[in-house]
Amino acid sequence: MGIFRRLFGGGGTTPANQGDNEGFFVYVQCNNCGDKVRLRIHKQHDLNLAEGGYVWHKTIVDNRCFRPIPTEAHFDSHYQMTQAEIEGGQYITQAEYEGA
Ligand SMILES: [Zn+2]
């Protein structure tokens, strides 16, 4: 990790799980085949206002077994996931997504 940061001339803060200003990423793994999926959530288009933050409804489909994974996730006003229900899969961290 340190090497990459040096190569890219960084050394500053690393934006955690933030793809850009308009969206951010969540990571899901399929329980059936183990495929990992990265999803970009557009803050304005994909999220609905809910009490204390936002709610996101989505049926995720992975690229291996194509089994639908319905989910409903809640986020606070800082787009941090506070609660999630997911069927047939599980949320994983960015590190887990990028790992083996
Ligand atoms: Zn699958």
Count of domains: 1
Q: What molecules are bound to this protein? A: zinc ion
Count the beta strands: 7
Q: How many individual helices?
A: 2
Strand content: over 45%
- SSE pattern, N- to C-terminal: HEEEEEEEH
Rg computed from alpha carbons, rounded to a whole number of angstroms: 15 Å
Globally, the shape reads globular
Low-confidence stretches: 1-15
Q: How much helical structure, as a percent, in the residues?
A: 10-25%
| Intertermini distance | 15 Å
Helix/strand-derived category reads mainly beta
Mean pLDDT: 86
The assembly state of the depicted protein chains is: single chain
Strand order of the largest sheet: 3-4-5-6
**Largest sheet: number of strands, sense, barrel closure:** 4 strands, antiparallel
In terms of topology, how is this protein built?
Elements: H1 2-7, E1 23-30, E2 36-42, E3 48-50, E4 53-61, E5 68-76, E6 81-86, E7 89-92, H2 94-98
Antiparallel strand pairs: 1-2, 1-7, 3-4, 4-5, 5-6
The structure holds zinc ion (ZN).
Zinc ion binds near residues 30, 32, 62 and 67.
Protein described:
With 100 residues, this protein is mostly beta strands. The chain has one domain (16-98). 11% of the residues lie in helices and 46% in strands. The protein contains two helices and seven strands; from the N terminus they run H-E-E-E-E-E-E-E-H. The chain has helices spanning 2-7, 94-98; strands at residues 23-30, 36-42, 48-50, 53-61, 68-76, 81-86, 89-92. A four-stranded antiparallel β-sheet has the order 3-4-5-6, with no helix packed on it. A hairpin with a 4-residue loop joins strand 5 (68-76) and strand 6. The longest helix is centred in the N-terminal third of the chain and has 6 residues, at 2-7. The protein is globular. Mean pLDDT is 86; it is low at 1-15. Bound molecules: zinc ion. Zinc ion binds next to loops.
